[in-house]
């Protein structure tokens, strides 16, 4: 008898597993009629989980944003269990609306909210295990359209919107999460909705701090493009056209403004419209090529990040005002401390990496200088010219940081812009000595952040580093070249010490090429 019961249980488990497998595959393919046939005689299986993350078939349909599949599934659910389905959570605590919020299908979210009837607000305010509401999750993974729709729905309940703007588990703001996930269009919309979000902090970091760390979001810090890619990047339309909800090119607002500023004659208007529509069609044709589509996507990201940076910089005028001083005292050669004729332990132990390697909370300006995001550096400099003289907790100014991190474009910008005021600011920056006793020339000698440069061989790499050192050396006063830092090293001594392995590699003989490569 027991054996028969066990066999029956095994058969039941196998049947359930088969239903799980088939329903999962059909749902992913959005085969609504097949799903309906499968569950027609197995209504109870509708409520079973079908993935390791405890998703039901409803979760899959919501994640896909398939209104058609959701409609078919809810048709098989008794009215008395509708709310139960709407509030079902997977392993991560996500309801159907949480899943629907992660795509660009607004209709699926509308369908679910309409199903909630009087419990609409409860469903909109439901949180997952991370403390995220559907609106918050939409800002992280969805599109501006779904965020806008959910925000409008939440706003119908007085005071509910602000609750959705923070993740309860760690108080991370909705603008922070949108920027961290490169949802820049959503971030700009949220900032327009609530400008105060710009100054919300998470572990003392504003949204501008976060954006300043995202080097891939800006062209200047994304790495060098190939010649052809650079040309196509420059030609692909940016402000003139944008993608609409159907992913088609349409004239942007700046394009419409351009038409408005044309002489109001029928001929000029006709020519302008013809050019715009021809340009749009031309790029629609070229985007059949995935290579072009990827370049267009990258350029769009860079443009949106730049516009977001504009707004954030205008709202962040306080971070660079924190007052720190840097030393300008020259330290000449000194004898190493000795104890009993031997170099002291304290002295020998200081021959390591500078103390400033300890992570410190930096300002957006210093972060952008270290990551090479020239766009943010320029925007902060334009909005707050005096910010260029900001000194961080380590006694470093923007030149120290740009030189140390080998951010050549930032270095050139600061040098050139500083010369516009007869070189006054440049002279002040050049004289800065940080808490480790390093001048900007010492930073040029350090190799902690040297990533290999653009040259192929060790000898050429060393030559590139030497040219960089000599370029910085021309900027500093002569007496700064003999200044010793707290490790009792001049910049030249530090350069030799930091590049000794590179010099050794450069001196090794080059192996002859194999005969078949001759």
UniProtKB/TrEMBL annotation:
Annotated SUPFAM superfamilies: Ankyrin repeat
Span list, region Disordered: 487-518
Superkingdom as given in the UniProt entry: Eukaryota
Regions annotated as coiled coil: none
Basic and acidic residues bias spans: 490-507
GO CC, one annotated term: membrane
Transmembrane segment boundaries: none
PANTHER family: CASKIN, PGG DOMAIN-CONTAINING PROTEIN
Protein's name according to its UniProt entry: Uncharacterized protein
